[in-house]
Design goal:
Strand content: 25-35%
Strand order of the largest sheet: 8-7-6-5-1-4-3-2-9
CATH class: Alpha Beta
Number of domains: 1
CATH topology: Dihydrodipicolinate Reductase, domain 2
Structural class: alpha+beta
Largest sheet: 9 strands, mixed
CATH architecture: 2-Layer Sandwich
Distance between the termini: 27 Å
Low-confidence stretches: none
Mean pLDDT: 93
Number of helices: 4
Length: 215
């Protein structure tokens, strides 16, 4: 059994988001916006080594790609990206990507040289979901998911749902163990990783050529 270790796959807060979408609570899912950034200028850090896979999209841009595919339940048709490279490291330090899905659109920003931040907004025709800490979810405090019906532009009336405290990496390991013990092994996890990488490669091609790339 081979599966790419996307811990968000097994985090209860993302199960909650998926349930709300599938139950139709937000109406039709039409758009997703994500941001993920941190500051790292260490030349000895693998994230800043272009020859062995460094760069923002490989490191953290993969998460907006993954959750977009997970929430839409579809593969994108085309992608485009803007990429700014570090002059010393030759890695992408700032990137913006857009993905066109059959049912909607997803856009994201990722950076290895910005103030640390992360957030995901999920827009439906009736409501909006906001995931407070979507990727590096805390294991010492509840995760929070906000639900907003748009009745007030300031968003002060949005519903806040606290999820039970958990360690998403423990959840991931337990889910993987259960697959092995139950014998529910198939090729979909490996294909899912390949599909994610196809999109990441396409984003890099778009950023390097300035062209829209069909998937």
């Amino acid at each position: 059994l081979i599966q790419e270790a996307f811990m968000v796959r097994d985090n209860p807060q993302w199960h909650k988001v998926c349930d709300k979408i599938q139950d139709g609570e937000i109406g039709e899912l039409r758009a997703i916006q994500s941001a993920f950034s941190y500051m790292n200028r260490d030349p000895n850090n693998i994230r800043n080594m272009a020859d062995i896979g460094g760069g923002g999209i490989y490191d953290i841009g993969c998460y907006p790609v993954f959750i977009s595919r997970m929430l839409f339940g579809e593969e994108p048709l085309e992608v485009t990206a803007l990429i700014e490279k570090d002059q010393d490291f030759k890695t992408d330090r700032l990137a913006s990507g857009m993905m066109k899905f059959p049912s909607g659109q997803s856009s994201f920003l990722c950076s290895t040289q910005l103030v640390p931040y992360q957030r995901v907004q999920v827009f439906g025709t009736k409501k909006r979901i906001e995931v407070e800490v979507p990727f590096n979810a805390p294991n010492q405090m509840p995760c929070r998911v906000f639900l907003d019906d748009g009745s007030a532009n300031h968003g002060r009336f949005k519903l806040i749902e606290d999820l039970p405290v958990c360690d998403q990496y423990t959840k991931q390991a337990e889910a993987f163990e259960n697959k092995i013990l139950s014998g529910s092994i198939d090729n979909s996890p490996l294909q899912d990783a390949i599909s994610n990488m196809v999109i990441i490669d396409a984003l890099y091609r778009s950023g390097n050529t300035g062209q829209l790339v069909n998937i």
